[in-house]
Amino acid sequence: MRILSLIIGYAVLYLVGAYTPTDSPHGKDFKISCSTCHSSKGWALDKEIYSFDHASTKMPLTGQHKDINCRLCHASLVFAEAKAKTECVQCHEDVHSNTVGKFCDKCHTSQSWLVNNITEIHQQSRFPLVGVHTIAECQQCHKSESLLRYDVQGVECIDCHRENYLATSNPRHEGIFSTDCSECHNIYSYEWGGSGFNHNFFPLTLGHSNLQCSQCHTNNNFTSLSTDCYSCHKDDYEATTNPPHNSGCYSTDCKICHTTNPGWGTVIQHESYFPISSGNHAGIACNQCHTNPANCTYDCLGCHNNQANITNQHGDVGGFTYTSTACFNCHPRGVGGD
Ligand code: HEC
Ligand code: HEC
Ligand code: HEC
Ligand code: HEC
Ligand code: HEC
Ligand code: HEC
Ligand code: HEC
Ligand code: HEC
Ligand code: HEC
Ligand code: HEC
Ligand code: HEC
Ligand code: HEC
Ligand code: HEC
Q1: What pLDDT shows up at residue 46?
Q2: Cβ(29)–Cβ(80) below 8 Å
Q3: Of 97, 133, 131, 138, nearest to 115 (Cα)?
Q4: Whose CA is nearest to atom 41 of ligand 2?
Q5: What does the DSSP assignment read for 224-235?
Q6: Among positive and negative, which fits the CA dihedral 53, 58, 62, 64?
């Protein structure tokens, strides 16, 4: 009995001696109770009683990490050695050869390496894929030897379209046009010419649509054209008779009164001169005030012609005279007392 208990005693001592926390495979400073992970079944991890909360570390186990063997991350079994190894790139090879940076979790999760939202990822980058570029093959832009490298020549149009640029002949671009193709070309278009070309720097609207380029770009001049209406429409201005514009009254800044609407109908912003679309003077014809079509003068007295009565109304108004300019100066909006 004594011997037996001695043997048992040694056996226990042996076990405890061999596996004290100090020289357990988990290292000297390991504090977690053995029974959190082991049972009498042996030193393999006993999944039935395992109760360590891995989420209490800085590396919660998600996705496929949940199911893999502890030793794949903790090869030495000294768990603490994995401390601060929480970035994907610290454990996984960068198959992209540093062409997308080291923050793998921008595109991947621990669930899978497949990426099914590449379009959205692309929209966040400096080069959103729009228009014709959405149908191009990845490799047309990412021309690396490896399909997993995503380097590019650049993000500016010219970086990828230099050859197209240099090859142009109609019109020839080289050295003349900007290399920022988007100034003139529409990235949403599937071609360079036709609707793929935009003229937004000088919109070709109304009377300017459907013209030949050469009607404005005479002598193939694409570079030094003025956008000032008068530069192209001087002759039209000089030729006006109704009303004659060169009387000194009409500005040569046609935009004040005209759009490109064919026929030169007016959109004259007359309200800033004198209200004629509302108030007392709404609907009065131009020539009722501008009685002399040859100049800018206006006449108020044709209608406000009861001089005695009007003078009477201004009895206590200092500086009153009975002239049109005086009426206008004191009544610039055509209402009393303003
Ligand atoms: C947080 C869980 C956990 C705790 C706590 C823990 N172990 Fe382990 N232990 C493991 C895992 C996981 C293995 C590897 C098992 C496997 O590979 O099947 C292991 C393996 C071992 C082995 C076998 C070593 C080998 O080379 O196969 C021994 C011995 C061991 N542990 C002793 C201890 C002792 C002693 C304690 C308490 C001081 C302890 N363990 C606490 C998880 C733990
Ligand atoms: C995908 C990799 C990965 C897997 C799988 C994994 N771990 Fe960890 N584990 C880590 C990392 C990384 C840390 C360190 C986290 C930190 O810095 O807080 C860690 C920390 C620990 C710690 C705390 C160490 C300390 O001293 O703070 C323990 C204990 C641990 N793991 C046990 C396990 C056990 C048991 C398993 C298997 C059931 C396991 N781990 C599976 C990556 C992993
Ligand atoms: C502490 C090391 C470690 C860290 C950190 C880590 N992993 Fe893992 N991961 C592993 C190990 C080990 C495996 C299993 C072996 C393998 O498949 O490479 C694994 C497996 C995977 C798998 C499954 C592999 C497959 O072939 O299906 C994916 C996906 C994955 N990890 C993604 C990530 C992502 C994303 C991150 C960062 C958010 C990350 N991992 C961080 C160690 C780590
Ligand atoms: C900007 C996004 C992005 C980032 C960041 C990124 N990847 Fe990827 N990764 C991808 C895309 C896209 C694929 C192709 C996936 C597909 O075909 O579904 C891919 C595929 C993979 C694959 C699978 C390779 C194969 O053979 O199919 C692995 C492994 C991988 N990436 C690891 C990483 C690692 C490790 C990091 C961090 C160093 C990382 N990735 C960073 C976008 C990214
Ligand atoms: C028309 C050209 C073009 C096409 C087609 C294209 N890409 Fe890109 N891609 C780029 C450019 C340019 C960048 C660089 C963006 C940046 O640096 O911000 C880029 C960046 C990336 C990145 C890195 C994004 C990041 O945030 O770091 C990934 C990943 C990528 N592309 C994957 C793909 C995949 C996969 C496809 C095919 C489905 C594809 N690309 C198609 C031009 C293209
Ligand atoms: C990273 C490379 C890359 C960049 C940057 C790039 N493109 Fe592209 N682009 C392509 C590829 C690849 C195609 C499809 C193949 C082709 O037609 O050359 C394409 C096609 C086009 C097309 C259609 C041409 C046709 O005849 O099929 C237009 C238009 C176009 N791009 C305009 C632009 C504009 C404008 C920019 C700048 C805002 C730009 N691209 C920037 C790679 C790029
Ligand atoms: C200042 C305006 C302007 C800029 C900037 C510009 N283009 Fe053009 N491009 C034109 C015009 C105008 C046409 C003729 C459109 C038509 O015929 O409908 C044209 C036509 C083209 C054509 C077809 C004609 C041919 O001769 O092959 C290509 C290709 C082209 N451009 C490429 C480019 C590229 C690439 C860039 C940028 C690197 C660029 N363009 C920048 C104005 C411009
Ligand atoms: C109604 C007159 C008019 C018509 C028609 C016209 N343009 Fe222009 N275009 C202009 C003016 C004005 C400018 C100068 C714009 C500026 O400098 O802001 C200009 C500039 C340009 C430029 C040079 C832009 C630059 O940044 O240097 C190109 C290229 C051009 N036009 C191409 C065309 C083409 C191609 C057509 C025929 C499809 C056309 N234009 C029809 C008036 C016209
Ligand atoms: C202050 C306003 C104003 C300005 C500025 C102005 N116009 Fe007019 N224009 C008119 C009015 C009012 C008419 C008569 C409209 C009507 O009958 O509907 C007119 C009519 C015309 C007509 C047709 C009448 C005719 O006799 O042929 C032409 C052409 C014309 N304008 C050209 C120009 C040009 C070119 C410019 C700039 C260089 C210009 N206009 C600047 C107000 C203006
Ligand atoms: C680069 C030259 C150019 C410039 C700048 C220009 N135009 Fe024109 N415009 C033309 C040409 C060419 C026509 C067609 C021939 C014609 O009717 O005179 C035209 C036609 C018109 C028409 C139609 C005339 C009709 O008979 O129906 C109007 C209206 C017009 N332009 C207004 C303007 C206004 C307003 C501006 C300034 C915002 C302007 N244009 C600037 C060249 C130009
Ligand atoms: C009720 C009187 C009245 C009517 C009606 C009227 N105007 Fe005027 N108009 C004025 C007054 C007042 C001014 C401001 C003169 C000043 O500021 O010296 C003016 C200014 C103008 C000017 C600017 C002259 C300049 O010196 O720059 C033009 C052009 C003009 N009118 C055209 C018209 C046209 C075209 C119509 C018809 C659509 C019209 N007016 C109808 C009273 C009138
Ligand atoms: C075509 C006729 C006509 C012309 C021209 C005319 N007016 Fe009038 N005006 C009227 C009528 C009608 C009224 C409203 C009845 C009234 O008070 O006499 C009116 C009212 C007024 C009033 C009084 C508004 C009020 O609040 O009681 C003032 C001030 C006035 N006009 C100023 C002017 C000035 C300044 C001019 C010249 C630039 C002018 N009018 C040209 C017809 C005209
Ligand atoms: C020196 C400034 C001045 C001049 C010039 C002037 N007015 Fe007046 N007018 C006024 C003032 C101030 C009142 C308001 C008087 C009052 O309510 O006692 C007024 C009132 C009026 C009224 C009456 C409005 C009402 O509410 O009953 C009319 C109509 C009028 N003016 C028209 C004219 C006409 C037409 C002329 C040009 C012949 C003219 N005014 C010149 C300052 C002037």
Answers
A1: 96
A2: yes
A3: 138
A4: 70
A5: S----HHHHHHH
A6: negative
